Task: inverse folding
């Protein structure tokens, strides 16, 4: 009886071992599969992280470019405004220059019957030479007086001859207490003029006529 049991248990033992082996193999297979899945997930996660890191600077750069575009537009608008302002300023300057030229071109030239006079010039925009004199005016022909100096300043204003380059050949009364006439030239006598002027109360001597001479003979 015992021998039968022993034989039966011996026959059952290999069968159990086979079942255990199969279970172990299945478990090992499952573990391997889980390891592969886990490893695949980990590697994929690392790849996604690296791609995300690479994409971030590009996104930031795009954002920077997006921020720079409005700034470029603002700069362009400012430059256009400045250019417009400059053009307007230039136009205004040109208009002022044209007005000044028109004012400067108010001089009128005429001829004279006097053979020693090449041309006669008058200008409605001539202004009196500012005076420092006060009280009742007395015309003076003393070359050390203030009135004389203001007459010379008036001559310089219309002829362009400076005092240090001027020869005063004659400065005298011109038919009235408040009228004077001067004959002058440059020191080299290349320019010769006769200047008529009148006194304006509280303002000064006003040039009224400029005659350009071709000779000094008979000019005074």
Result:
């Amino acid at each position: 009886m015992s021998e039968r049991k022993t034989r039966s248990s011996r026959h059952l033992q290999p069968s159990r071992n086979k079942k255990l082996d199969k279970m172990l193999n299945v478990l090992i297979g499952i573990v391997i599969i889980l390891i592969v899945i886990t490893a695949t997930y980990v590697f994929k996660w690392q790849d996604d992280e690296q791609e995300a890191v690479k994409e971030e600077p590009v996104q930031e750069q795009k954002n920077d470019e997006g921020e720079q575009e409005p700034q470029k537009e603002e700069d362009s608008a400012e430059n256009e405004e400045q250019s417009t302002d400059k053009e307007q300023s230039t136009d205004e300057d040109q208009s002022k220059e044209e007005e000044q030229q028109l004012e400067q071109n108010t001089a009128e030239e005429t001829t004279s019957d006097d053979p020693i006079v090449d041309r006669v010039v008058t200008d409605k925009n001539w202004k009196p030479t500012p005076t420092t004199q006060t009280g009742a005016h007395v015309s003076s022909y003393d070359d050390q007086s203030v009135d004389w100096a203001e007459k010379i300043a008036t001559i310089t204003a219309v002829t362009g001859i400076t005092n240090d380059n001027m020869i005063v050949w004659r400065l005298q009364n011109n038919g009235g207490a408040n009228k004077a006439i001067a004959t002058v030239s440059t020191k080299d006598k290349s320019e010769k003029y006769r200047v008529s002027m009148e006194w304006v109360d509280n303002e000064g001597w006003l040039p009224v006529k400029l005659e350009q001479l071709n000779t000094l003979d008979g000019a005074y």
